[in-house]
Write a structure and sequence with these properties.
By secondary structure, the protein is an alpha/beta fold. Helices cover 33% and strands 21% of the residues. It has 12 helices and 16 strands. The chain binds NADPH dihydro-nicotinamide-adenine-dinucleotide phosphate and 6-O-phosphono-beta-D-glucopyranose. NADPH dihydro-nicotinamide-adenine-dinucleotide phosphate binds next to helix 1 and helix 8.
């Protein structure tokens, strides 16, 4: 929601910290370009990249240009839009912990923007281990506008935020010394994905789902996240965190919260997040016997490396690249329903979906000879090929009574004649507008860490050795889910 103090008419200075990195180059700057092409950035804006890598502004622009696509500026307008955007991109290098780095940046910004009021958006596209020192250096260099001024300063912080509940709380407290909760945007880019945003609409703007959305009618729910790539050059980051912190504690728990929460009082940032927190607090933390962990080995063909042979991973690493668990939600709506959660890298395919399996029809009137009656199943496919699919039982056309499960299928690609925006476009626009509904509040973060902190500690204290699965394995790489009872 946009507050009355928002001044979107002011010039905007976007500072991307870690601008040499993967996220900045592949996602953040291309998303800013997409917003620019659609006329969604303020008239006057500049992008300031900062990182330790030494590079000229020209070098920085060349790096950026490699990843810009002209989805929103087709044909002849593309070259002109690209050139105009690149002209507004600037670069400074320096060490993150030193206020001198940011004082130099301030001088560069002043030289380009002048001395009038400017809104500032700081994007922390850096490993979580450096968040705190950057926030402190920004504060020390006087780059953060405070309270009473007309202009705002907002900070976008990437996940994972901390390594467990205690370190996350510490980080929240330290960052609050510079940025208030209201000016902190903790991003989980899955909340910007179309289908994830649609969950709340599907549940609360349709009459037919809510009455069956509970233990009485739902037998189990599964949340699956798989990607076919390994960690590549991101091993330095990934090895310190692992798949549970990289994907389960944030992306999958956010999806779970939206799927299972109670109806919010209204559709606004506070009410929705209140319900998500309430739900997360009812999730029972899984114990060690309720989780399986795996790590990818070399592919069977030998063409893909084992995790421990990746260039930036220690050869003796026990970090899981795969995990599967069963979560229980202790409230009246969900008691007894298993929520299977699975996440893995270097698997056979990219898929991220939710399957809601309904209970069997209680009094089946059809003979087995007619084909049998399968339970209904609702699949919500987040990516790729976004879709909502309900499996129903149907009579096969013909003179005999033959039953067959068939899909009622809403495939986004065919149903909507529009491109699906990248999640970062949607989220960056929200930051500029001051809408925090799709960002993680501090109490939500704490509730999410409470779920996984005990099992993460147990895995690490007991040096649990992950099962090895070949790079490119099919589903359920490490075998079966832990007992669901
Ligand atoms: P990178 O490893 O590419 O790091 C970004 C930049 O930070 C690097 O270019 C480097 O710049 C600097 N850096 C790297 N390691 C260190 C270090 N140990 N100390 C100080 N600076 C360092 O990370 P990503 O861009 O992949 O990710 C950045 C953040 O975004 C992380 O929090 C990650 O979890 C999150 N994220 C990333 C996604 C992705 O797809 N990449 C998706 C979702 C979230 P230089 O050396 O020039 O200073
Ligand atoms: C990031 C994780 O949050 O999400 C990565 O850090 C993962 O490990 C990425 O590859 C996947 O994002 P997407 O949008 O491609 O599903």
């Amino acid at each position: 929601m946009t507050t009355s103090r928002d001044s979107t008419d002011l010039p905007l200075g976007i500072v991307v910290v870690g601008a040499s990195g993967d996220l900045a180059q592949r996602k953040i700057i291309p998303a800013l370009f997409a917003l620019y092409c659609q006329g969604l950035l303020p008239q006057e804006f500049h992008v300031f990249g900062i990182a330790r890598t030494r590079m000229t502004a020209e070098g920085f622009r060349e790096l950026i240009a490699r990843n810009l696509t002209c989805r929103y500026a087709p044909g002849e307008s593309c070259a002109a839009k690209t050139a105009a955007f690149l002209e507004r991109c600037h670069y400074a290098s320096g060490s993150y912990g030193e206020s001198g780095t940011f004082l130099d940046l301030f001088e560069l910004m002043r030289g380009i923007e002048g001395r009038g009021p400017v809104n500032r958006l700081y994007y922390m596209a850096i490993p979580p281990t450096v968040f705190e020192e950057v926030a402190k250096a920004l504060g020390d260099s006087g780059l953060v506008a405070c309270g009473s001024k007309r202009e705002w300063s907002r900070i976008v912080v990437e996940k994972p935020f901390g390594r467990d509940r205690a370190s996350s709380d510490r980080l929240v407290a330290e960052m609050h010394k510079v940025f208030t909760e209201e000016t902190t945007y903790r991003i989980d880019h899955y909340l910007g994905k179309e289908i994830v945003q649609n969950l709340i609409v599907l549940r609360f703007a349709n009459l037919i789902f809510e009455p069956v959305w509970s233990r009485e009618h739902i037998e189990s729910v599964s949340l699956t996240w798989k990607e076919p790539i390994g960690v590549g050059m991101r091993g330095g980051y990934f090895d310190q965190f692992g798949i549970i912190r990289d994907v389960m504690q944030n992306h999958l728990l956010q999806i779970l919260a939206l799927l299972a929460m109670e109806r919010p009082r209204r559709f606004d940032a506070h009410a929705v997040r209140d319900e998500k927190v309430r739900l997360l607090r009812c999730v029972e933390p899984p114990t060690l016997d309720r989780i399986v962990v795996g790590q990818y080995g070399a592919s069977e063909s030998g063409t893909q490396p084992a995790y421990t042979a990746e260039p930036t991973v220690p050869p003796t690493s026990l970090t899981p690249t795969y995990a599967a668990t069963v979560l229980r939600i202790n409230n009246d709506r969900w008691r007894g329903v298993p929520f299977f959660m699975e996440a893995g890298k270097a698997l056979e395919q990219k898929v991220n979906e939710v399957k809601i399996r309904f209970r069997p029809v209680p009094a089946n009137i059809f003979d087995a000879s007619m084909g049998g009656v399968a339970a209904n199943e609702l699949t919500i496919r987040i990516q790729p090929d976004e879709a909502i699919e309900l499996r129903i039982m149907n009579k096969v056309p013909g003179l005999n009574m033959v039953l067959q499960p068939m899909p009622l299928n809403l495939r986004y690609q065919t149903a909507f004649n529009v491109g699906i925006p990248d999640a970062y476009e949607c989220l960056l626009l929200d930051v500029i507008k001051g809408d925090r509904s799709l960002f993680i509040r501090a109490d939500e973060l704490a509730a999410a860490w409470d779920i996984f902190t005990p099992v993460l500690a147990a895995l690490e204290e007991q040096s649990v050795r992950p099962a090895i699965y070949p790079f490119g394995s099919p589903v359920n790489a490490t075998g079966t889910f832990p007992a669901s009872g």
